[in-house]
Automatic annotation (TrEMBL):
<feature type="domain" description="Actin-like protein N-terminal">
    <location>
        <begin position="6"/>
        <end position="106"/>
    </location>
</feature>
<protein>
    <submittedName>
        <fullName>Plasmid segregation actin-type ATPase ParM</fullName>
    </submittedName>
</protein>
<dbReference type="InterPro" id="IPR040607">
    <property type="entry name" value="ALP_N"/>
</dbReference>
<dbReference type="Pfam" id="PF17989">
    <property type="entry name" value="ALP_N"/>
</dbReference>
<dbReference type="InterPro" id="IPR043129">
    <property type="entry name" value="ATPase_NBD"/>
</dbReference>
Amino acid sequence: MQNVLQYQGKYYVCGSTRQSLLKDKTMNDTYYLLTMAAIAKELKYRKASAKERIVLAAGLPLAGFGREKQRFGDYLLRKEQPLCFRYENSAYEIYIEDVKLFPQGYCALALHPEYLKEEPSVLLLDIGGWTIDLMRLDNAVPNATTCRSFELGVIRCMDEIMEQVRRNTGLSVTEIQIERVLNGQACSMNPAARDIILQYGSGYIQRILSAVTEAGFDLKAIPAVIMGGGASILKRHVRPQDGLFRPVYLEDVHANASGFERLAGQMSSR
């Protein structure tokens, strides 16, 4: 029963495969089901009861936040109360009292105000799985007109590298192997495959920097806070000649979630 969710008479194995890209997460129940598993894991981690009242904090990409906020909030906060399901053979009865939605990236800075202190302008670069989100903050206030989003996330890079390795060597490497090589971690691998991964990884970083420049942001002129799953890859493969001005790397993959939790807690206490 490990990672098995039971809901409305059906069984789901969570985390066995990567989900395909959905422009609109409300199109099906996949993310709702994953949210149940996440709630169960969080309650277990906190040694909390399986029958709880909770406030759910979640995030949306910067560029589509205003457009998607209401629909995604309704998607997570349904009339079905309490929400009853079983996860890893334990029964849960959850009352979702409220859903708080926040913009991804910006909320992570709630934990690190020192990066914005006394800086007139800072660029936020959030490198996620499917998208890269950009936004400039002026005097620590988000400038909504500068929000940009590109489908140039780490997963796209992984897919391209796997295809190139397969085409040039006939080998089928895994995403985990690629990730370890790109991050400079130990991984037994064919030398030719490793060279291809490093070559295309460096090329991917240059594509990101070019996309940022084409969007009108000058990484050589203003400080940048770089976060998300791709932050560690960019940190390792960016070159001195790229000339980034005072980049700050937030490599904690939980940074967004921690920011959501902090802000939701402050709103609840008020």
